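Board notes (copied after class):
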Amino acid sequence: MSGDKTGGQAFPSAPPLPFSDGLRHGKPGMTLRDWFAGQALAGISSTLTEMAGRENGDDAGALLLQGITGAGSLAYALADAMLAARPTPSTEEGQ
């Protein structure tokens, strides 16, 4: 993991190249933490939707909205746990 708590770039790319205007074009993109949180949120949303529809019929939308409160925080908590569980280069060498 990188020195920060984001895990670095999710999809690393070559650094932006200087163009004739003297500026560097391009952006680094999302972090690995953001990618993990997005993947977790997809699973959370799918589960909430299925549970709401199965258990409440016509009231599914209301239950889904109630369940979504805090889903983003939960997704990032799961992303942080995934980052923490990743092996570090020193533990990979010992295996």
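Comment from the instructor: Helices lie at 32-56, 60-68, 71-85, 89-93. Residues 32-85 form one domain.
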